[in-house]
Amino acid sequence: xxxxxxxxxxxxxxxxxxxxxxxxxxxxxxxxxxxxxxxxxxxxxxxxxxxxxxxxxxxxxxxxxxxxxxxxxxxxxxxxxxxxxxxxxxxxxxxxxxxxxxxxxxxxxxxxxxxxxxxxxxxxxxxxxxxxxxxxxxxxxxxxxxxxxxxxxxxxxxxxxxxxxxxxxxxxxxxxxxxxxxxxxxxxxxx
Length: 191
Known about the structure:
The chain is α/β, with parallel strands linked by helices. The chain is about 45% helix and about 20% strand.
């Protein structure tokens, strides 16, 4: 995907069938700005088709409110539970339809890729990701709930992908934010 222009808004989406995290991040020069973030929740007692319809409608409302131009969606992690993977795939499908209806190009990222783009480590904890988001986005507190912070990380990952060095690694501005965070934590390594 070509590099994003300044002031480009990206919608990050952490899919699910009961809770969907979303976060819109805009790049303004070298700064990243959280335009909005939150979660879409549905009653887990509803039949799956009704839950998916409500989540898709909620995502359409987020898109209408925040006007992103591109989206980043977390890929399905295939663990040992095939039924859970199937449900998550159904959730992603409903969200993809909402994104396609809005005409948004969608990039797909594994969770560990988003974590690495933000923290420099693909196995960072959700709390470490939230703490780094607080610093990178200049927020008063770490974003919550964690589904929303995962979505913000996906949006930042998408913003950073064109800027990643050819051999991998972390963009310079995120590397500096990581160094500052380590200094604030007494020189310890963030993993």
